[in-house]
# Entry
Amino acid sequence: MKLVLSLNSQKRLYDYISMGIDTFVLGGQYSFYCPYMFDLKEIKDIQKEYPHIHLYIAVNALYDQHDIQGLEEYLQQLAELKVKGLIFQDFGVLQIIKENQYDFDMMYSPETLNTNHKTLEILQAQGITSAFLSKVIPLEEQIYIQKQLHLPLMLHAHGVEYIAASKRHLLTNYQEASNLSFDLSKQDHLTLQARNSNIEFHIFESCKGTHIFSKTRLYTLDLLNQIHQFDYLYIETLMMSEEEAIEIASLYSDALKSFQNNTYNKDVKEYMNLLYRLKTPLDRGFLFDQTVYKLEDMRKIDNEKRESNH
# Structure
């Protein structure tokens, strides 16, 4: 089990490495969303300065036909840089990699679709070599999937959670229609609140479209006894300041070391006290919610609809 961090600042990279973290996810030119967009020169410079670390590049959008030529060139450049892997969801990316016989760890991350081990077994035969489990299923089900597979799996351990996205520039359209003036470029500047609900979400816009994330941060710092069997624990630094990201990475790094030294059960209370002192909104996400719809429930609903139409 190792920590994986989405990198939001190159200048703090040494701090993370000194904690023992050696695997990072970097945003880039073809990322759908990311805390920071690294260009190819920056990626090359990082690899030159820290040749022992593992870099995954987020190529996590669904691409249109007009993107393909540029995407192919970009993937070729990443192959020449010999980065460790790609975080992807569009199978066009996997096809390009296979056709060119590039050597990447292909981590399949479709946000909400990795919800059962059977699908992942089939996709493993098609060329995926690791996967990011869906964040919208209970922890119990995620653990069950992990036990059924011989495939490295990543679990979202801490940070804001994906809610929804659109390729459309919804905030720009709303601004034009409403004649309101607001800054839509900052990731944590605007919030969205559902009607008849007190739950708030971050909403922001980039050149790739509109993105909605939870305002609260998922946390699992006190759950290492349950989640230690996963290969990777992921810390999402989107919406985090550099200082918060450092503090969170340090807490999880120390907790992992404590777990390995068999002192975690004694130390975890202090780790949680330190986490609470950061005064960031925390949440369990879907970890302890039951799945609302099972396959048999959906069949029953479909049958009831058919009967009502006759």
Q: What stands out?
A: The radius of gyration is 20 Å.
